[in-house]
Design brief:
The structure holds 2 protein chains of 2 kinds. Chain A is mainly α. Helices cover 53% and strands 0% of the residues of chain A. Chain A has helices spanning 13-21, 33-37, 48-57, 60-67, 71-74, 80-84, 91-104, 113-129, 134-145, 155-160, 174-183. The chains are: A mainly alpha, B alpha/beta.
Chain lengths: 190, 302
Amino acid sequence: MSSHNNHNESKTLADKILKSTQVSVAKCYQCGKCSAGCPVSSEMDYPPSMVIRMLQTRTPENEEKLLRSKTIWLCLACEMCIQRCPMEIDIPKVMDYLREKSLKENKAHEASKDIIAFHKAFLDSIEKTGRLYEVGLIADYKLRTFNLMQDVAIAPSMYMKGKLAILPDMIKDRKGVAKIFSKTIKKKEE
Amino acid sequence: MKIGLYPGCSLKGSSREYNESVVAIAKAFNIDLVEVQDWNCCGATAAHNLSKELSLALPARILALAEKEGFEELLVPCAACYSRLSVTQHELNEDQNLKNKIIDIIGMDYKGTTKIINVIQFIDKYITDQIEYKMFRPFRHDVACYYGCLMVRPHDILKFDRPEDPQSMDKVMRKIGANPIDWAFKTECCGAGFSVSRTDIVGKLSGKLIEDASDRGAELIIVACPMCHSNLDMRRAEIEKYLKKKNKMPVLYITQAIGLAIGLDEKTLGLQRHFVPVVLKETGDDYKAEKKEVTQPVETEE
């Protein structure tokens, strides 16, 4: 049990990340290899090494900035950062943690709404059919984002080339998959 | 001996030519691939972006099904599925409490003992040594072998090839007579999961790597991931927009290149499904006429 003196410290995001993912951001010495290797760092508001630095500061202001950042939604999870990190800090796991928390607290950045809409449409499709139903995914994504005209140019070619299945491929044990959703992402807050 | 096959969603939809070419070369080399029954989606990027538990439970159900069917080995041709399944197996093996929790969520028995192999490991183990006996015509092309992210990363878990400058695909290409070029983007990201939501980023990342492959003299790019393929092939318009010039370099799956080398039909390999037309000396009517004349397999150079 931690002492009362450390009470505030144990509530910082860095501590929660350590507890939940066993990733220690304290090890980072800011060499910047992650930011140099990250394919999308130029699009981000804070490059990966800065995310880790902001977590190290343990200030509520910086933590709030991260949960509301564009960065966490632009991360492609390509894993280049951890591959090149001399301290083997699992930054993709940190990003996963921040995304999950940002969404739960309704803090996701406005510019990320298309990306999140895509992820949600993707998971909805799996929850219903067990597999990804691409036509349904695109229709669902378009309705969520109002990007109605996107890809109307390539869809007919995809169909002609046999790349679009018009009907969903439903698995038998859809109940089993739905149960996985209700026990994880859809479970009521503890 | 039967090897389990987990195709995943892309290989049943927008990348069905990858599945077709995997199944076609397995058949040509008399390998018994059996699809896991009633498999579900691995959850891909979407699941681990939004829920850690979901991202472990979905692959765990697939692995539990493979165990139930008694597969010792499970071939996972999609690099993204391969990475998700491997990471799940690793994380559950490392943490008994987490494993129990996920077993409870999926409501199935799960041991975590299935050997998960990617398409290059599969080719290396069951096909490479046999290629010379089946060779129809050496695949004489300068190729850029593009591994992408998830075939080699996270390396600590996958322990496959070298994480920077991998060589396994280059080796297979040499075996079928191709010349793999040196280039700088072997394991750079193509934009992956943004193929629909941020096509501008896909155009830029994929554009950079296509430009490097072109500049270094590649005639075509060889891939082993459906997301890499769909970004490089179907998003060519966005790529050309970023490059501000036309680029018609075809993108082939490693299994399609092997298929052409052993004389399989281009339709069997699904080449007609590509957006960027695959125009090679191995394709088209001249080749078909020539194929009819040849009755003996051509010897290859080592």
